[in-house]
Amino acid sequence: MQDVSSIDTSTTLFGRNYPVPFGLAPSAMQKLAGGEGPRESVPLIKRAEAAGYEALVLTVDTPVLRNRINERKTPLVLPPGLHLSNLSPPPHSSQTERKPTANRLLMDARTGKKLTPSSSRRVAMKIILKGIMTPEDALLAVEHGADAIVVSNHGGRQLDEVCSTLEALPAIHSALATNVSERGKRNSIPVIFDGGVRHGADVLEALAMGADFVLLGRPVLWGLGYKGQEGVESVIHILERELTKTMALTGVAEVEGIGKEYIGVKDTSMGGFGVSKL
């Protein structure tokens, strides 16, 4: 009997209001799906800051690439004319294979300069750490001055044994939660959720489990491959409609009102995982 005649899906992140509580996740090699892909951006940080970008997302869960058996059997080779713009393409070659890319990333991880979010950082942009999967790392991110974190396991492509992001989210939220209003617990810094979001119900589940914002990865690439920009816009519209209907059917009219009372958690007393359900 809740009044859901008007559903408000808007939310606020870093002081800005957005019509929906989800956005597009960082993803590489978008030209393989379709469209023009991201603009080349080397050197990334200075150019991004000069162009007016307000936040920098650092992936922190990939110091090396894992042993990807399928790619050992069939290496990923970019088509002619494509290369990773943040890495120099091989001399006299228009193709970049996964193996030299992995070696380059390993070399950079061992010898490259570290950019740490701290009070002495040289960039004015907000620093967002992507790849946080434990409450301990979430607290370290806060301690070192990160402006937000992304709970992400790299699409499940890095460490096979890692838990899902939805399983990791509640403990991270508990570690960062502070009682700031009568509406309940809010995170001390924004907690952004990534991984497995395919429907509007997935967005609501993540918000109910403690996320402040949600990112879409693969669905965006599917839309891009289907019909370029129009396809991506269609994905966003579908998710917005699904979220609106899911909120109405669960009896919550505003994103701010979404809490853990809107989901049930499987009994874990017998040693099972706490899988959330609407």
TrEMBL record:
**SUPFAM superfamilies reported in the protein's UniProt record:** FMN-linked oxidoreductases
Matching entries from InterPro entries are given as: Aldolase_TIM, Alpha-hydoxy_acid_DH_FMN, FMN-dep_DH, FMN_HAD, FMN_hydac_DH_AS
- Region spans: Disordered: 80-100
Q: Which UniProt keywords apply?
A: Oxidoreductase
Keyword Transit peptide appears in the UniProt entry? no
> Which parts of the sequence belong to the FMN hydroxy acid dehydrogenase domain?
1-268
Q: What are the protein's GO molecular function terms?
A: FMN binding; oxidoreductase activity
Cofactor requirement: FMN
Family matches, as Pfam families: FMN_dh
Q: Which PANTHER family match?
A: 2-HYDROXYACID OXIDASE 2 (PTHR10578:SF149), S -2-HYDROXY-ACID OXIDASE-RELATED (PTHR10578)
Would you identify the family this protein belongs to, as annotated? Belongs to the FMN-dependent alpha-hydroxy acid dehydrogenase family.
What is the protein name given in its UniProt record?
Answer: Related to L-lactate dehydrogenase (Cytochrome)
> Per the UniProt entry, what species is this protein from, by scientific name?
Phialocephala subalpina
